[in-house]
Design goal:
This protein is mainly α. About 75% of the residues lie in helices and about 0% in strands. The chain has 8 helices and no strands. α1 runs parallel beside α8 and α4 runs antiparallel to α6.
Length: about 210
């Protein structure tokens, strides 16, 4: 594939969204593709095919596959990975855009970090809402879907980057809206439980006794 600035940008967008869901699955998929030369990748991503990168990502992907499906622990795991997914997504974006101008490479890196952060934040918020449910099926189903999307979208982005980027943007907007709606929904019963006024309600001050 002849990677133009537009296709590289699209690949960065799609891969960064996937990284926000599961950074290890994303890097492992890119690494396997780089190692096997199954598909052409931007030259800057060749380093992802190194053996130690593949081994580390495979081990951590296996760990996350289990940890991310344990109710309660999955929220802690996702909060902890704020310091992992965003910086590594930015690093992948930086290397993917290595053949662009320095200015465009910096912009691509910033875009990659921002998309990964937005995706990761939405995922963590959704997990915080789903985790209190008494059954573990919802956590397992949501986590499994994220794994499939991360691997599938990363692979698809190496073949059809523009389409993959469009899908990533649509999914990101949907995830943000869903997270906001669910968080607002659980705020109401929590406020009633703790005797707090509804959000946006005027605060009535008690008359002072002189």
């Amino acid at each position: 594939m002849d990677f133009s600035p537009a296709s590289i940008t699209a690949l960065v967008i799609a891969a960064s969204f996937a990284a926000g869901l599961n950074i290890y699955a994303t890097v492992l998929t890119l690494g396997i593709l780089a190692r096997t030369h199954w598909v052409a990748l931007p030259a800057g991503l060749d380093s992802l095919g190194h053996t130690w990168v593949l081994v580390v990502c495979a081990i951590m992907f296996a760990v996350e596959f289990v940890a991310d499906k344990i109710p309660g622990f999955d929220v802690f795991w996702n909060v902890l990975h704020t310091a992992v997914r965003v910086p590594i997504a930015a690093l992948v974006a930086y290397h993917a855009s290595a053949q662009l101008s320095p200015q465009m490479q910096i912009i691509a890196t910033g875009v990659g970090a921002a998309i990964a952060l937005a995706t990761h934040s939405s995922k963590t918020a959704l997990r915080a809402v789903v985790t209190p449910s008494p059954e573990p099926v919802s956590n397992i189903a949501l986590s499994s879907a994220e794994d499939v999307v991360a691997v599938g979208l990363t692979w698809f982005a190496t073949h059809h980057p523009i389409v993959a980027a469009s899908i990533a943007v649509v999914l990101l907007v949907a995830a943000v809206l869903a997270a906001r709606a669910l968080l607002r929904a659980i705020q109401r019963p929590l406020r009633r439980l703790f005797g707090m006024p509804p959000a946006g309600a005027p605060v009535v001050s008690k008359p002072s006794i002189e």
